[in-house]
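testing teh design pipeline on a random one, pls ignore if ur not involved
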């Protein structure tokens, strides 16, 4: 599903694009063959092709449409930068201008039709790129870049112009970057840095500057994709491509809005399969941020809870600030696999160690107490009166001589330790200088992660600029918070990739027998009655109370006898919501006379309120348990989403819910429960029994199956309350509402 400002790519047209543009199908993973024709039950591809962007980043020939060498003109500076870039990557550059004979001494052709060869990349510098794109289609160019603004970021008229541009691009067979993009892809990258690199994706070029300038601190950058309005090529395409590049150690993204939620999930899945970390700043958490992002790039920002859930499902590490983006991406790109998840804090000040340890523990890092034997070893060099259990306080003086390196090596030698963090709050030569050098030397001799927080605001000290930043093995930070965020991300990503199983591998390919039963119950454009909604649940094997729909008082009495006293009676109608507030629910009826009276009262109230009924439900009374809500909604970007949370009136009061985007498996369903603030209610509080968590998880998975199979037909589903009974007794949907599309 694409955003409202873009055309929709059907499955067939997407396959055609894959063939036309040389996109590579997903390689075999987990022993199954790659197949871009694999579709889920909704007819959507399960595996995304990877755009072959090699000729975009390293073309053999480039055309610059609108090239100029006239002083003072904006296109002149751009042309000059493109000339330098083409020389660096070894590409032939062909200027295109209708009135110039040459540009910067290079022969110029009047139109793309006059190009002397088929070019890999056309950079379009004219204000209206649409006619040029249509001309480029005839030349079989592979890629084009459109810098022009004034498209979807400006409103409805611009969105319509962008839709026309996107349609022309799709017809042409070329791939387009932009419009409303910039020159970041053609920056000069340092080629003297070693090790894994960061690949950068930004929808705002300026927001990528902090990551780009990390090259000056010794962090390698390999690519920069400024995606702009994403009329064609989007963030997901570049994630998929970068995840395949052997030099890329991490992908850093600044995202204002996603064009296609499912494409993003497929790309993140590809990165997760290969263990390539993706770190993202995603704006739009607030209404103001979402509105500003839309005006900038013209894309939907998406409901933030859904975006957050999708990122979490596929291991995308979401951070808030650009400083966190650069520090976390740098650590993840360069860090080696961890042998243990224990973190030791080592400092020359007990106060510093205690402060950092409090923050790290609160953030969820594991700070194991060092063994008695290890503490005894450390006390060979550290005075006995200092605490070395973790954090390790050396008192200061040992770092200035041979003892400093002995202490660091002893800590790193502990098998329970995977990370050593040394906060140095300020320069205090010679102690800080020697400590920095010992940490760098030790890092070169170990596979474990060594982190340093250099707290000086000056940043010109030799220990920082030369010693720490000169090391490719030590991760250096300027703040406690960024260090903790990055280390936690590294530990979390290691655990995530170790157990990751792609949900797309296990997604249903063919509809279940339940689907055919459910389809017969759907009423396009209508809300189903509670009775019909419960039939929908029954079709998918979700337990509902014993109940009968009746249309007379006498039938209600007979039904009560069959259902078994005590009973609940509820009005049932296609457009009926909030029955309790209208007095249309009667609970705990124990006799035939109460049932007859209740029937008359319910129908009288409905008549007075002008509510049309299909009957009255006579329902089994279910024993009390924990009331939960499980539901399905449609997200503009991601399609069907599944929600679970505390039910009854609490869902509106506390809004304690967790969201996932199908497909997902049992592990994610259980993780949803772990995110609930009220999870303790399910685990039993104040002597209450443990709830049947397995039954609740099974309901969530069955609802997910329903959401996948009825995508396009089911707009909304709300099971509230779902009564989760004590362990071994199951879960029962006491009420349900469904809306058909």
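output:
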């Amino acid at each position: 599903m694409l955003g409202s400002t873009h055309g929709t790519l059907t499955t067939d047209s997407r396959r055609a694009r894959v063939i036309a543009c040389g996109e590579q199908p997903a390689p075999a993973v987990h022993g199954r063959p790659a197949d871009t024709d694999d579709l889920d039950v909704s007819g959507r591809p399960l595996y995304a092709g990877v755009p072959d962007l090699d000729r975009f980043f390293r073309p053999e020939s480039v055309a610059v449409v609108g090239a100029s060498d006239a002083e003072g003109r904006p296109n002149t500076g751009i042309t000059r930068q493109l000339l330098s870039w083409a020389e660096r990557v070894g590409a032939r550059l062909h200027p295109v201008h209708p009135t110039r004979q040459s540009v910067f001494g290079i022969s110029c052709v009047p139109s793309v039709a006059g190009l002397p060869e088929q070019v890999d990349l056309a950079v379009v510098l004219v204000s209206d790129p649409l006619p040029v794109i249509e001309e480029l289609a005839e030349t079989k160019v592979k890629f084009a870049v459109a810098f022009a603004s004034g498209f979807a970021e400006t409103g409805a008229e611009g969105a319509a112009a962008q839709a026309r541009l996107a349609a022309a691009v799709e017809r042409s067979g070329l791939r387009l970057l932009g419009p409303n993009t910039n020159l970041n892809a053609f920056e000069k990258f340092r080629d003297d840095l070693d090790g894994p690199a960061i690949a950068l994706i930004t929808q705002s070029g300026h927001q990528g500057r902090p990551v780009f300038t990390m090259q000056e601190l010794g962090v390698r950058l390999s690519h920069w994709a400024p995606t702009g309005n994403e009329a064609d090529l989007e963030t997901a395409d570049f994630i998929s491509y970068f995840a395949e590049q052997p030099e890329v150690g991490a992908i850093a993204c600044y995202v204002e809005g996603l064009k296609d939620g499912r494409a993003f999930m497929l790309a993140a899945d590809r990165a997760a399969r290969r263990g390539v970390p993706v770190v993202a700043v995603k704006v739009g958490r607030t209404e103001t941020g979402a509105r500003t992002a839309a005006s900038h790039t013209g894309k939907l920002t998406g409901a933030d809870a859904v975006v957050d859930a999708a990122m979490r499902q596929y291991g995308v590490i979401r951070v808030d600030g650009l400083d966190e983006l650069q520090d976390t991406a740098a650590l993840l790109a360069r860090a080696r696999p961890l042998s243990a998840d224990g973190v030791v804090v080592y400092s020359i000040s007990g106060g510093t160690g205690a402060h950092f340890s409090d923050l790290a523990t609160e953030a969820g890092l594991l700070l194991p107490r060092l063994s008695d034997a290890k503490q005894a070893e450390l006390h060979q060099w550290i005075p006995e009166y200092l605490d070395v259990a973790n954090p390790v306080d050396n008192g200061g003086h040992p770092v200035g001589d041979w003892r400093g390196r002995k202490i660091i090596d002893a800590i790193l030698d502990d098998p329970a330790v995977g990370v050593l963090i040394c906060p140095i709050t300020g320069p205090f030569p010679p102690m800080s200088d020697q400590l920095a050098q010992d940490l760098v030397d030790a890092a070169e001799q170990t596979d474990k992660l060594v982190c340093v927080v250099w707290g000086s605001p000056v940043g010109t000290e030799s220990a920082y600029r030369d010693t720490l930043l000169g090391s490719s093995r030590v991760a250096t930070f300027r703040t406690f918070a960024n260090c903790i965020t990055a280390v936690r991300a590294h530990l979390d990503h290691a655990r995530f990739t170790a157990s990751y199983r792609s949900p797309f591998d296990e997604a249903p390919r063919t509809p279940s027998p339940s689907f055919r039963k459910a389809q017969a119950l759907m009423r396009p454009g209508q809300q189903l009655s509670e009775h019909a909604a419960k039939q929908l649940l029954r079709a998918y094997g979700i337990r509902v109370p014993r109940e009968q729909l009746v249309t007379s008082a006498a039938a209600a009495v007979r039904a009560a006898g069959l259902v078994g006293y005590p009973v609940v009676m509820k009005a049932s109608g296609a457009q009926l919501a909030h029955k309790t507030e209208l007095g249309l629910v009667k609970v705990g009826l124990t006799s035939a006379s109460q049932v007859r009276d209740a029937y008359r009262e319910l129908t009288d109230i409905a008549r007075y309120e002008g509510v049309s009924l299909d009957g009255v439900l006579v329902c089994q009374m279910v024993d009390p348990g924990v009331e939960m809500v499980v539901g399905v909604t449609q997200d503009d970007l991601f399609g069907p989403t599944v929600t679970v949370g505390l039910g009854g009136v609490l869902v509106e009061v506390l809004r304690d819910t967790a969201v996932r985007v199908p497909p997902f498996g049992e592990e994610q369903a259980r993780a949803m429960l772990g995110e609930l603030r009220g999870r303790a209610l399910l685990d039993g509080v104040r002597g209450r029994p443990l709830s049947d968590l397995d039954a609740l998880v099974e309901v969530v998975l069955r609802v997910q199956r329903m959401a996948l199979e009825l995508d396009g037909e089911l707009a909304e589903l709300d099971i509230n309350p779902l009564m989760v009974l004590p362990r071994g007794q199951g879960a029962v949907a006491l009420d349900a509402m469904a809306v058909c599309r």
